[in-house]
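ugh ok fine here u go
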Amino acid sequence: MNLIGLTGGPGCGKSAVLKIFASSASWRVFDADEICHDLYAEKNSAFAERIAERWGRDFLHGDGTPDRAKIAEKVFADSEELAWLNVLTHPEIRRRIEYGIADCDCTQRVMIDVPLLFESGWDKFVHLTVAVWSPPEIQMARLLARGWTREHAEARIASQFSAQNKLERADYGIINNASLDTLKEQCVELNGKIS
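structure:
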């Protein structure tokens, strides 16, 4: 089974690339961010209790789920708290991905979208790495279009390796600075190279 790690900076287009590969029956895809969203949606979980123990119950919604927006505001302003949160979440996200991979058809290729692929050392867990890159001005425009403030977008970008750094570290790169059709063409070409 081929395990491909997909990464890139915020707003570079990882999700668009993952969707393109997901549309092929020969690929199984996992999205670490989506699994993290699932973790945040679980009511009164052990994860939620750890959040409350560290930062107080104000960081939980009334239904017992962690307040993602409030947590993001805290951790992207404090690298020590971000590191603590990553230590808490990454092992559980990885455990859930490994469980899903164990359930895969052995003829399928697997792509895992992990924003912090290199930062967390997950690149050692996969066979090949792919980075999606966009020019900084396009990256920022996409993040602002999500409703993020420029300050929040800059903090999120600064909390990771730069998109350029990820591109340089990866085995393959996808340049996402044009149309969706151009992006699809690059994905088709990449699919041929890693088959």
